[in-house]
Amino acid sequence: MRPGVPFPDKLEAGRPYPLGATYDGSGVNFAVFSGHAWKIELCLFDIHGRRERKRYVLPECTDEIWHGYLPGALPGMVYGYRAHGPHDPRRGHRFNPSKLLIDPYARQLMGEVKWGDAVFGYRVQHPKADLTVDRRDSAPFVPKCVVVDDTFDWGRAGRPTTPWSDTIIYEAHIKGLSMLNERVPQTYRGTCAALANPYLLEHLHRIGVTTIELLPVHAFLQDHFLVERGLRNYWGYNTLSYFAPEPAYLPGGHPNELRKAIRDLHAAGFEVLLDVVYNHTAEGNELGPTLSWRGLDNASYYRLMPGEERYYINDTGCGNTVNLSHPRVLQMVMDSLRYWAESYQVDGFRFDLGVTLGREGTGYDPGSGFFDAILQDPVLSRLKLISEPWDIGPDGYQLGNHPPGFAEWNDRFRDSVRRFWRGEPGMRPELATRLAGSPDLFDRRFRRPWASINYLASHDGQTGYDVVCYEEKHNEDNGDGNSDGHSENFSRNWGAEGPSRDRAVNQIRERVLRSMLATVYLANGTPMLLAGDEMGNSQRGNNNAYCQDNEISWLDWRQLEMPTGRDLSRFVCRLAELRHQHPSLRIDRFLDPNEEIIPGVNRLQWYDLDGSVMSESAWEFGEGRVLGMRRACRLQDGTVEVSLVLVNGSEGDIEFVLPESPVHWERVLDTTNIRAIATAAPAERAPVGAHALVLLIARVERQEQT
Fold it and tell me: In a 3-state reduction of DSSP, which class is residue 560?
């Protein structure tokens, strides 16, 4: 309240919109949804969130929105809710006014969950479990909400609006990106303030990144079982609030610090995407804590088992599933997305377990309300939208089955690249399809090759370096007896498990890693680089480092001072340069591959070792590990650019017979020699080393085309 102004006895009626706590210059309007509550109470706390100072009943309910207005209230006010309603878990109702609840629209949180029995709505250890009621006040143990004023000066930088065809994504974790970077001031390490550090920006520019994709920045929960093990939820895929940034990422505690970081990234030319988790919440299953949505209206916010509403549908594997079929729940997600798009100016979103978001009562539907709502939205539909196209529910693998406007993480690309380069037989047809932009998956409904997010590694799994160093997962530090994480990573250690002092082993590892990264950058589609893969970052074989908030996950920037890391970084820089310079390496449409761009040169053609066009029998030859991919495109000035990618996944060096064509090749990339400069290439044959990739480029002027 304003200094000297006492709390009024009652709230004014206020308005049902907008939801959340909204400051208007004269006071604060509070509005929260609950379709089954009998009464909602607003609890106001001191500035430290320790002592409850005043409690009000929200005086009005309009269309299931409870609301009230507190004149004289200011930003910085600390609050929470208590909800009164039926306690009938068998029918899906779990109201318990003893539990202080986070406003689903809270834009800032204070404090964190302190684990104790009071945060649960039932009596822990009671034989009837969640059918009981716990009457203890949870307020001392849960975060409080803070009223904020979202005013911020965005300056003149604006959004970079990088075209999809020019995009190179860098997937990074806010904390891990800077914790071990000695060029970042100690105060800012591990926070959003480090994102605009000049050293980091220079590095990202150097390796050709256009777009930074951040792991979850929404406020998230430190899971009870992890805290008991002395571990932490590092990745952040357990959301506590869809509107508030994670407090640990704000060095001074104010959300504007994240806005400033995004503004500075935009000014430096980088787009910012957020990894968002709208498929489940931190409240878990029926034995989880009561923190927000469960206590406000469990039966509306979550998908419950038909006929057994005590239990939750668990298509996510995280205990619960958010019920996007309910209009108010869908509204919450859409309001959250628009809030981050407008109030934080983010450039797009990567949707964790995107299939769950597209589920209706009958299963996954690419025409679901969620997809329709986004694609008709004048703000969101113009942003970069990426889906993780799977979950663990029925028919949960939906790669290629998302609507136009969405890109998708292409794990078939990841696995194909790993399997081919580790030497598996029969992989040539699969690799060719992935190099062409996965038309088998995305060439429909006028979608573009950019819809395929091509990657070698992501946060979920082994790093690129570990793919060539470990054949087994090593997740012992996670506390589950190495039983968690994927058992099949399609990796190969090339002679030793883990770090090796054998020079020959390390040389082949480094070459294979370069060849795999080159495959990502030279394929049609959108390349994504896992932060640290450009310097050979390792997680010691851990392929599920979600709980490793330590040196296992943090990037060790000292690697750039060592020959291996420095050389690899320069190589990635070269890949990005080539991709940006040569349109034939990033064809942005699915067009007729047999169309002649110039006489004798089709838009897309595949070749075997002897320079002949790949025949059906050649495609069927399982031991074939050599492949040539020629692409041609007409440039704006009328010239034609032709590129030829030569791939040798075999154990020995080869000489590739070049296809006959009216072009003069230039050898611009060779993964056996990272320091090689562009040189003229012979017209007849091109040597390609074992486990290596070579790129040839030619340009045909107008007069030559006739």
Answer: helix
